[in-house]
């Protein structure tokens, strides 16, 4: 009878070990599946980030490669003139001199076309603001992808 009880205890002990090992195996498999899913999600996010980075680099390469001297110089003249007018403290006399010079230049470049000096100054200021905003956005995008 004592041997029978010892055998029953041995079998119960073995069944308990088996059950514990099966539970451990099941938990480990569940954890492995969770990690696989997480890995897939991270791989997708990484691929999206790489695509965005590639698009950004491609657009930067395209913009750097352009060689348009004429319109650029004209823009710089307009922006420079507007910046000077906005920032200069030389007074009304200097402003009038600059306005007269600009009108003469305008008449040489585009004869017969009228212009509103204040509107041009305002638009040049807006162009500068837009350029600064675009540069900040590009810098933020580059920082995020780096």
User: What's the end-to-end separation, in Å?
Assistant: 76 Å
Beta-strand content: under 5%
- Overall structural class, as computed from helix and strand content, comes to mainly alpha
Radius of gyration, rounded?
Answer: 37 Å
Identify low-pLDDT runs. Answer: none
Let me know the average pLDDT.
77
**Could you tell me the number of beta strands?**
0
Give a quick account of the main beta sheet: strands, pairing sense, barrel closure. Answer: none
Structural account:
The protein is mainly α. The protein contains four helices and no strands. It is rod-shaped, with a radius of gyration of 37 Å.
Secondary-structure blueprint of this entry?
Elements: H1 2-65, H2 69-87, H3 92-109, H4 117-145
Task: Explain briefly what this protein structure is.
With 146 residues, the chain is an all-alpha fold. The chain contains four helices and no strands.
Protein traits:
single chain, about 150 residues
């Amino acid at each position: 009878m004592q041997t029978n009880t010892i055998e029953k205890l041995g079998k119960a002990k073995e069944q308990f070990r088996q059950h514990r090992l099966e539970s451990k195996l099941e938990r480990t498999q569940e954890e492995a599946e969770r990690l696989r899913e997480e890995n897939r999600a991270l791989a997708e996010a990484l691929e999206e980030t790489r695509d965005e980075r590639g698009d950004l680099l491609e657009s930067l390469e395209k913009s750097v490669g352009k060689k348009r001297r004429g319109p650029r110089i004209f823009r710089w003249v307009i922006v420079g003139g507007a910046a000077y007018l906005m920032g200069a403290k030389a007074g009304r006399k200097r402003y009038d001199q600059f306005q007269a010079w600009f009108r003469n230049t305008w008449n040489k470049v585009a004869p017969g076309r009228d212009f509103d000096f204040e509107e041009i100054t305002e638009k040049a200021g807006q162009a500068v603001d837009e350029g600064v905003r675009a540069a900040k956005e590009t810098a933020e995008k580059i920082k995020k992808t780096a």
